[in-house]
Amino acid sequence: MTEDATVNSDNLITEETEAPEDNSWQSRYLPDDLKENATLQKFKDVGGLSTSYLAMQEMLGSRVKMPSEESTEDELTEFYSKLGRPESPDKYEINIPTDGGTSEQVVYDQTLYDGFLQEAHKHGLTNKQAQAAIDFYNHMGVDQKINSDAALSQARVNAETALKKEWGPAQYDKNLALSRRAFNRFADEDLKKFVNDNGIANNVAMIKFLHKIGTAFSDPNMAGDGKDAGSVDTDSARIEIDAMMKDKTHKYHASLFDPKDAKHDEAIAYRDHLYDVVYRGEE
C-alpha cells in the first residue's frame, strides 16, 4: 500500500458510501423523462438553452413560406415583400442603358416601360430581377440592330452586283442617278420613310422600275439624253402633269405659273402635250 492511499475501512467492498449529489440544472428543472436527453445535455445552463431557443425563433420568423395555388393575395404580397419586391411599381430603381454599347442612342417607349414595371411588380420581381430583364431586352435589341445593319449592307452589295451585271459598269452610275432622281421627285415623305425602313431602297426591281420612269420623260433633269416626250405613256403623263403642278423643284413649275417667265410658253406647250397624251389614251 502506498503512502498516498487513505483507507477509511478495512473492507473496501462492503463499505457503504453516499452517492455524490447531482446539482445540474437538468436534474433540478427538468422532468424525469428529459433529464437524460442528449440534446439538452449539450447546454451548460438554463441561460444557454434560452439563448439557443431565441435564436431558433428568430430564424423561423425570417423563413419564407412558399406560396401555393391556393395562396391569397395577401399571402403572395407578404411572400414577394420578403423576397425583396419594391412596395410599388414606381419604387423600382432601374438603370436604363443609354446606348447598349453602340454609338446610337437607345430610345425607350415610356408607355411600354411603365407597362413592364407594372407586370414586373405584379409577378413579384425584385429590383435586381427587373434590372436583369431590362438589360437582356437591351442586349437583344442591340444584337438585332447589328444583324439588321449587316443584312442591309449585304443587300446593297448584292444589288450593286446585279445591276452592274445587267447595265454594265459604264452605265451603272448614270442609270442609278436617274433612278434616284425619279424617286426623289415623285416619292412623298411617307413613301421615302417606308422604303428606307423596309430595305426596299436596295431592291433591284424597284431601282429598275424607277429607272424606267426616269427615261420615260424628256425633261433633261429626269432623262438626260433619253427619249422625247412622245414616248410617254398615259400613266407617266399624268404623273408628270401632277409633278409640274405641285413640285416646286420641277423644271417647268415656276414657268408654268408665271406668264412673264422666259420659258412660260415652253412650259405651257409641254403641259398641253402631256394632256394630249392623257386624253389620247382615254379615247
Describe this structure in words.
The chain is an all-alpha fold. Among the domains are: 71 residues, no CATH class; 48 residues, no CATH class; 58 residues, no CATH class. It is 59% helix and 0% strand. It is built from twelve helices and no strands. The longest helix has 41 residues. The termini are far apart.
Mean pLDDT: 77
C-alpha termini separation: 151 Å
What string, H for helix and E for strand, traces the elements in order? HHHHHHHHHHHH
Task: Give the % helix.
Answer: 55-70%
Write the SSE topology.
Elements: H1 25-29, H2 46-62, H3 73-83, H4 110-122, H5 127-167, H6 169-186, H7 189-197, H8 204-215, H9 220-223, H10 234-246, H11 253-257, H12 264-282
Attribute tags:
mainly alpha
Question: What is shown here, in short?
Answer:
The chain has 283 residues and is mainly alpha-helical. The chain contains 12 helices and no strands. Helix 5 packs across helix 6, helix 6 crosses helix 8 and helix 10 runs antiparallel to helix 12.
